[in-house]
Every structure is written in structure tokens, then in C-alpha cells.
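Hi P.,

Sorry for the delay on this. The queue was packed all week, but I finally got your sequence through. Input first:
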Amino acid sequence: MAETPSIKIQIDEAALKEQVTKALQESMQDAAMRLRSAADALDGGRWITEFEEYQAKRLRDEFERGRRDALAENRESYER
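Then the structure:
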């Protein structure tokens, strides 16, 4: 009778976790893009247009807030 071979498997948990995480991220990104495409097809691109407008307004508001704060700080340091 032949002896049953002993098989020992070692798993690098960090490498496995990295591979699984990368695969999940890629799958989620792909699913998100498909959902966006489907949403755009349903509303004729209105959603993405409104989102881009919202982001642009947010950026302008943040820039203006930073500008006002910088001018106020400059004025305060000048008055000292």
C-alpha cells in the first residue's frame, strides 16, 4: 500500500487580502460605471450635468471662502 503524501499549504494572508481587495475594488468601480451609464441613459444625461454643475458651484464657493479668509487675515496683519 502506498503512503499518503503529506500536503502542506501556506497562505500569505497579506498578499491574499491585497488581491481580493483589488478585485473587489475593480468590480465595484465597474458596477458603478454601469449604473451611471444606465442612469444617464434613463434621464438623457441630466443627472451627470446637474452633478457637474453642483461640483463646480461647490468649488467656486470654496475658492471664494478661502479668498475672503485670506483677505481678512492679510488685513488683520496689515493693521497690526
